TrEMBL record:
It comes from Musa acuminata subsp. malaccensis. SUPFAM superfamilies: PLP-dependent transferases. Coiled coil: none annotated. This is (wild Malaysian banana) hypothetical protein. PANTHER family: HERCYNYLCYSTEINE SULFOXIDE LYASE, L-CYSTEINE DESULFHYDRASE. GO terms for molecular function: carbon-sulfur lyase activity. InterPro entries: Aminotrans_V_dom (IPR000192), PyrdxlP-dep_Trfase (IPR015424), PyrdxlP-dep_Trfase_major (IPR015421).
Length: 455
């Protein structure tokens, strides 16, 4: 990657004048396989990393840019604080605004992660309950498969303030958007029972576990029709793995991590807050000097800390610009490949995919052979550890409660209750998935069953 270590920007973390640094290679000459391998040479070569979804990945050229920013701060903190930091953060926000098609720069804040973004939105809901904007007993709707930490946040901020929480029970395996829409409509009806108002809907764009792409635009439209006050889309996985156009989706609040599928180092996310009366009352939970100056500015200084992850967005754009088709090209190829690998695994194991390909992004759920006997979340976690420790395969596993009426034998035989969530990112090779296929075959051939785990 030698040609990409640019001396001209060694002193400023990437670019000097607020413009995207010039690409070093013409777009007609896309990054080669060898260059991709070099960009991710810091990954442990002995491990099949097919779990980009959990923690993302960051190429060496972006890590180098991050280090330059950190050094620039440490070299002369005063100069950095007074002259460099805010213009550079603004530059990152401008790039994100373009990327997500926000109407106004004031609608885009950079925060640490989706968890922080959720806290910002839910803290606001909590104030609305305690200050009388929302009535005690008014409902907040969330998906049953909302991310665990976000669910806890909803309980901590909203239920405690008097909100009534309703979960939308999504079917899994799932075969169509209509199944999701149907359950969502039922949940809204329940929310509106007894004259209650539904004040907030928290909707995932891509659920984490099991991973399914949710028709957020349609659900947001339904919320508007049904008089739901606010819609918050938790799109932690979205940017870089599905198309994101916040104006088209139409939600009030929308967050996505940039460190999952967008090659930023941990940790940085954006929070889009549509211009409306509510958005002006949002505050960062960490209060500092900029309190009251609007969320983007509040978020741009939450005390002395390392802001470098937020500053490398231009370098990430450079990296992405080296791929044919940019981020759309990356997304498309990841999707095609993850579907191909998912089908290969399902065929090899005699199982099936958890959703049709059009309901998945760069991750897909694949059923595990029932004879492994995954009969609880604990079992799923233990098999995940086993695959990591014994077979050097990193992949998360989902335990799915059998559907009503489905009988599961003690040895789990035939019924699929465990699913792997496989990811595909630019650094993955087919061999990674073969390693998983063979590991599971070995477990099956050895007669492994979760009942063998010490209790
Ligand atoms: C749907 C969803 N929401 C929120 C999060 C939390 O992201 P973070 O840990 O970066 O805050 C995740 C993480 O995987 C997620 O999948």
């Amino acid at each position: 990657m030698g040609t990409h270590h640019r001396d001209d920007c060694a002193e400023n973390g990437g670019d000097d004048n607020g413009h995207l640094a010039k690409r070093l290679r013409p777009a007609s000459c896309p990054i080669s396989a060898a260059e991709i391998a070099e960009e991710f040479a810091h990954h442990d070569p002995s491990v099949a990393r097919i779990n980009n979804g959990s923690f993302g990945s960051c190429p060496a050229s972006v890590l180098a840019a991050q280090l330059r920013w950190q050094r620039l701060f440490l070299r002369q903190p005063d100069e950095f604080y007074f002259h460099r930091l805010q213009p550079a953060l603004l530059h990152s926000r401008i790039l994100v605004k373009e990327l997500i098609n926000a109407a106004d720069l004031d609608e885009v804040s950079l925060v640490d992660n989706a968890t922080t973004a959720a806290a910002i939105v839910l803290q606001h809901a909590s104030w609305a309950f305690s200050e009388g904007g929302f009535r005690k007993g008014d409902a907040v709707v969330m998906l049953h498969y909302a991310y665990g930490a976000v669910k806890k946040s909803i309980h901590a901020y909203v239920a405690r303030a008097g909100g009534h929480i309703i979960e939308v029970p999504l079917p899994f395996p799932v075969s169509s958007n209509e199944e999701i829409v149907l359950e969502f409509r039922k949940a809204l009806e329940l929310g509106k029972a007894n004259g209650r108002r539904v004040r907030l809907a928290v909707i995932d764009h891509v659920t984490s576990m099991p991973s399914v792409v949710i028709p957020v635009k349609e659900l947001t439209r339904i919320c508007r029709e049904e008089g739901v006050d606010q819609v918050f889309v938790d799109a932690a996985h979205a940017i870089g793995s599905v198309e994101v156009d916040v104006q088209d989706i139409g939600a009030d609040f929308y967050t996505s991590n940039l460190h999952k599928w967008f090659f930023c180092p941990p940790s940085v996310a954006f929070l889009y807050t549509k211009k409306c009366s509510a958005s002006s009352r949002l505050h960062h939970p960490v209060v500092s000097h900029e309190y009251g100056n609007g969320l983007p500015l509040e978020s741009a200084w939450i005390g002395t800390r390392d802001y470098s992850a937020q500053l490398v967005v231009p370098s990430v754009m450079d990296f992405i610009g080296r791929f044919e088709g940019g981020i759309e090209g990356i997304r498309k190829r990841n999707h095609e490949k993850v579907v191909e690998m998912g089908k290969m695994l399902a065929d090899a194991w005699g199982t099936f995919l958890g959703s049709p390909p059009e309901m998945c992004c760069s991750m897909i759920m694949v059923g595990l052979p029932g004879c492994l006997g995954i009969l609880s979340e604990k079992d799923a976690l233990k098999v995940r550890s086993l695959l990591r420790k014994e077979f050097k395969v990193e992949v998360p596993i989902h335990y799915q409660l059998p559907k009503d009426g489905e009988v599961v034998e003690k040895d789990g035989s035939s019924t699929v209750t465990g699913y792997v969530r496989i990811s595909h990112q630019v650094y993955n090779m087919e061999g990674d998935y073969h390693k998983l296929r063979d590991a599971v075959h070995k477990l099956v051939n050895d007669g492994f069953n979760c009942t063998m785990f010490p209790s």
